[in-house]
């Protein structure tokens, strides 16, 4: 296989991306040349292979994965590539059906058995640390996956069916990974798991996310730590003390709330009430002043009438989330909701509610962004464009949050921090000059 080219296409979430990056390192260690799936790759005459890491979370993601597989399957059938391999959530969930429907795919792997792909190709196991990987993000920031799986079993969610029960990584292994990445120039760590707040319960008998974040913050060279995908029920309040006391822990928390109506929350099996949700948010903001909250909300879940949707709109007006995403409910087979509720709300009603909710959030976001005009923000530079640099504040996660456009009055490089005076704003970006 020496010198043969292989392209890894990663679809879906950042958790998938980490798996793809680990796979790429393993493939490189057994002699493959890991390359982009571009025109040059297709023109190459040597052996060429493609791996697709799929997502199977919701309908749109599944459709994207299927279309990607179909496109490469045609190239495989035409002899344009030598091998086609599929891994990840979609192939895990539909392992019984997909091989018969897509015989052009050489081999299928799931969410956790994908390291066997390397062994199958190379006929040997790669000598690779369990956390080593090739970063595909800009070299100054990385995603840090601390656990796999989920024990929550929300009514609408298929993730536990795909990934299995929650499995934390040991603190010591995570810290070794952080030190390795710092040694390669990483300054910003976006900590990810399906449910951060359950971290450590399976290993240590008690939620240990505060202990872990504190340990990461101790590593020299770690400039920013940002936390993604907390769960509101049984939230570990000691995490707030760490966030408030450690300067390199960003004042940022991604906590998916889904809804505020007691009726809808009960149907969703979220194990929290609207009043408890409000109390939690108030405590978070009290104990971590200036924190920016990102949340995800769902419209159109069974039991959401106009009254419940109006309650959700009022909740968003009241809370003024700094960052918010939303999506319309789509029934997923084999979930609790699919078995126990009728998906009876028309799609046009769901989409209308979604549009109204996001229109409201755009207004809120514009107001929040406007309050930052005249302030000085610490910004990390991600890239250079012809007319400006593009960066982010501690309140902005890569890919999903607003960016800062920085005028070119000084020379800056990706990965460099710079104090920026904000001179103007838009709903989803800030504009400023270095100071």
List the helices and strands and how they pair.
Blueprint: E1 5-10, H1 14-29, E2 33-35, H2 39-43, E3 48-54, H3 59-77, E4 83-88, H4 89-93, H5 98-101, E5 107-108, H6 115-122, E6 141-145, E7 147-148, H7 159-163, E8 167-168, H8 171-183, E9 188-192, H9 201-204, H10 209-218, E10 224-230, H11 238-245, E11 249-255, H12 262-268, H13 274-287, E12 292-299, H14 306-319, E13 323-328, H15 336-340, H16 347-370, E14 376-384, E15 389-392, E16 403-406, E17 417-426, E18 429-434
Parallel strand pairs: 1-2, 1-3, 3-4, 4-5, 6-9, 9-10, 10-11, 11-12, 12-13, 16-18
Antiparallel strand pairs: 7-8, 14-15, 14-17, 15-16, 17-18
Helix pairs in contact: 10-11, 14-16
Written account of the structure:
With 435 residues, the protein is of the alpha/beta class. The chain has helices at residues 14-29, 39-43, 59-77, 89-93, 98-101, 115-122, 159-163, 171-183, 201-204, 209-218, 238-245, 262-268, 274-287, 306-319, 336-340, 347-370, and strands at 5-10, 33-35, 48-54, 83-88, 107-108, 141-145, 147-148, 167-168, 188-192, 224-230, 249-255, 292-299, 323-328, 376-384, 389-392, 403-406, 417-426, 429-434. Strand 1 (5-10), helix 1 and strand 2 (33-35) form a beta-alpha-beta unit.
